[in-house]
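Milestone M4 deliverable, item 7.
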Amino acid sequence: MNMKNIFACLLATFGLTTACGQANYEDTDVKGFAELVNDPNVVVLDVRTADEFKEGHLEGALNIDQAQRDFIEKAKGVLTTDKTIAVYCRSGRRSANAAGRLAAEGYKAVNLKGGIIAWKEAKMPVTTDTYEVDVFKTKGGKTLKFHALVHASIRMEYDGKEIEIDPVTQLGDKTIAYSTMPKADYIFVTHEHRDHFDKEAIEVLTGEKTQLITNKRCAEMLGYGEIMVNGQESIFDDIKVEAVPAYNISEGRTQFHPKGRDNGYILTIDGLRIYIAGDTEDIPEMQDIKDIDIAFMPCNQPYTMTTVQLVKAAKMVKPKVLFPYHYGQTDVKGISSELKDLGIDVRIRHYE
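Output delivered:
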């Protein structure tokens, strides 16, 4: 390697150029990039600063600042090499650098030429919503979006319908502005703990057509709601709902979530099966949960699962895509490598 390439490699280490001076990624224009971002097998990555991201970004984009020294480490914590990474920045220069560095790590990276400036000039949409969004296609070709709100709170959009899971207005220093969101068609509540059950959030989201589905205890506390118990199945319009067990089994923890009280839910939406585990450990009933496309599983010891338990639970359920959620301060980055051989796509989102 000549001195020029050695110098380029050193600069790449500090995020100042593409890896070893090689154009080991693809460039595409706005039209090509727009086709990419609508593909569920593509992850959109914004490599600008957090402040730039807040000013406006592509919907569903993850944000990792390429100038940070731990850029690659952070990227490896949330990205998998079986997905195409669609990278952009302001003008295309920083994202070209990031794309090269990602490609050098084994990722297939595509850079947006002209960056978000070119995107806006082409009248393409941007958003200031800072919630991470994951987009999936149902069996019938419809779009289903998951918004990572906070902790155990998830917003889902499907075919004009709004679905809210365990909506909570405030948790710690984070506030969710439910008043800016559409009224919910369905609200699912797993159990009564304050990080899952919030009367204020439910009230704000409730409209004339809202259906609340919950366990017996929460319905009693609210004075209304469609009660489902473990093992029960119901149909709400075109959504099949199964209430499944969620409880603690470890000695010294069973008081947190006693068996039979709380719900997890399996939603089947146009053929796509989604498992919302609720607060649970790796209970034996998970062996009976089959054909799951997307799973949300908790990981904050001692209240739910340890990382070891979560890996065990994922091996029982075998979802195609796994979102660890409800994880607080638990380090969940290593879960991806633990499940790689099973072909489970582990996606780490900011559900702290």
